[in-house]
Fold this sequence. Notes:
Elements: H1 2-14, E1 19-21, H2 24-43, H3 46-51, H4 55-65, H5 69-86, E2 87-94, E3 100-105, E4 111-125, E5 128-141, E6 144-149, H6 153-162, E7 175-178
Antiparallel strand pairs: 1-3, 2-4, 3-4, 4-5, 5-6, 5-7
Helix pairs in contact: 4-5, 4-6
Amino acid sequence: MRFLTAFLMTVILALPAAARPLDETEQTALMKAVDSYLRATGAGNAEKIVETIPPRIVNVFAGSAGIEAKKVQETLVTQTKEILKTTKISEFVASKGPFDAKDSSLADGTAITWVVVPIEFTAEANGKKTRNAQPLLALHEGEKWYFSRIDGPQQQQIVSLAYPFMAEAKLPAATSTPLN
Length: 180
């Protein structure tokens, strides 16, 4: 009987979440968080950018590296600062919605609402400019929206270590178009 119950729970949790529109409160909170993320990125504020990474993803990195999550965050801030020294981000915009949300649950019972926010930005590094379009995964956990840019299958795989329901999610492809 335990095997059957475990099997049924696995099947139920593996079912794709049905999309629903965000309600007005969710939409307002999401757009406030997205606008804050855009301002932090535009200003090159590495600390604020790293604060938007879901703690569960930071914990995955910490666990795999065998270090504390705080050390991972410090390393990510340092790396982000270094990237921003050589890369200029401009014309950073995000879709304003409306967004279709999906509700999922983690094995520990934590409820997660998630949406994909299309973003576009121009990046300039080493004299080369590109226009980039990427899905910004927005995850509402607890009382906060967190973000992870998904620029390809490897990033989606990393995110799915913390959020298993993302393993099978269909996300728009990231694109990068040279401008010069």
